[in-house]
Amino acid sequence: MNRDERPISFWLAGVRPNPEPPLRGRATADVAIVGGGFTGLWTAIRLLETQPDLRVVVLEMETVGFGASGRNGGFCEASLTHGLANGLRHFPDELDILEREGVENLRALVEFTRTNGIDCDLEPTGMLTVADQPYQVDEFQAWAEESARHGEPLEFLDREAIRAAVHSPLWQAGLRGAPERTVILDPAKLCHGLKRVALERGARVHERTRVTGVERMPGGVVVRTGQGEVRAAHVVVATSAYSGWLRRLSALFVPVYDYVLVSEPLTPAQRASIGWRGREGMSDANNQFHYFRLTADDRILWGGYDAVYHVGNGVGSQFDRRPATFAKLEAHFRAAFPQLADLRFPDRWGGAIDTTTRFTVTFGQTLGGRLTYALGYTGLGVGASRWAAGIVRDFILRPDSDLLRLRFVRTRPFPFPPEPLRYLAVQAVRHELDRADRNAGRRSLLLRTLDALGIGFDS
Ligand SMILES: Cc1cc2nc3c(=O)[nH]c(=O)nc-3n(C[C@H](O)[C@H](O)[C@H](O)COP(=O)(O)OP(=O)(O)OC[C@H]3O[C@@H](n4cnc5c(N)ncnc54)[C@H](O)[C@@H]3O)c2cc1C
Fold it and tell me: Which atom of ligand 1 lies closest to the CA of 74?
């Protein structure tokens, strides 16, 4: 098999897609959902949990899990706010509620996989964040104290302790988070498990069905596809970084390409040489950060660092492989784990992240309340998408829900400017973030100004 014929990601290679037929002709539904990733599938399931006789149709332009849901790192976290620090910055008044909701959401997600027989190699490992720069050590100590005050205990590991846990000459300190807040899993297996459950509960799923437009009609909407249409009372847009097809969403997000390597399985000697007995999900603490973890069969997944924006909210298969980023990631890996100098990385891919200026999922309704959208997880949607789907369900079936009154749900992030300013702004901020990483974390005037305005760029 040559490289281009390989499945998009290591994860998608491990599931049998078995696609449902495309939509042809006219259909009717109570709710049509556009997008067959975590957001779309959880929305179908949560709607049917609340109202089992609802007619729900999911329309996916490729096959389920084609987007970020089948390409991510598989870190499934409790945080709904893209981490506690970001939550404190944007939603200090609601943080206690959001933290409680997030922990409960992760607990319910794990339980759902168990009660529905979804085998997605889920491991409750917790998270280990490492400092690889001396200036970060004091920050880690301060952060351990601050986060404990907000009910998120983190264990501080000094240089000796972190290197004993995971053997790398780079680590200067570590912070260990609890398994109640991070599990690792195989995202494609989860996604395909959700599809099975959605079908079992009565949802219809049409794959290879691209939605081209939505229009208002009396009493609902018409959702047009290449070869047909669905007339529905409501439509849910769950198309994440691919939401450019709906022009009114384009100011809310930018698609940011993030890249991942997966190694061949480690030999017993290689496995022994790195420690990592806790199998934690890991990341470093730089602006341009790496995330890394073990797979169920003891490969290493190593991703992150570059966050690439293509002008005009560009997405497409031409961006899925980026040799320059792959080479950079591989070099960074070898610096972190010199004992694995010979380890090869046969699987490498990229995917688009739906980034907003405040890094959290954002919701809204248009077409007189007939269209509801949820997007913008900014690289932390594996867990949060289940919660967001509950919010979408509430918009449609439970408009009195208290959660709909949260500022987190009601308000929208600062918009991105139109092109060509958008491209220039993203490039400028990326440049400054890189500079800060090379300059002991010191943030430039531009970054400090954006911080003060509550605007950021991340993946
Ligand atoms: C490389 C990478 C690493 C990541 N790592 C992590 C991680 O470790 N942990 C974490 O929490 N998050 C991570 N994320 C983010 C996470 O994957 C996403 O937040 C999450 O999968 C979003 O799910 P979604 O269903 O909203 O979007 P998607 O999974 O992107 O689904 C959108 C779907 O809509 C379909 N679609 C688009 N347009 C149309 C149309 N017109 N008609 C019909 N269908 C359409 C697409 O084909 C796609 O399947 C990562 C993302 C990437 C790309």
Answer: 8
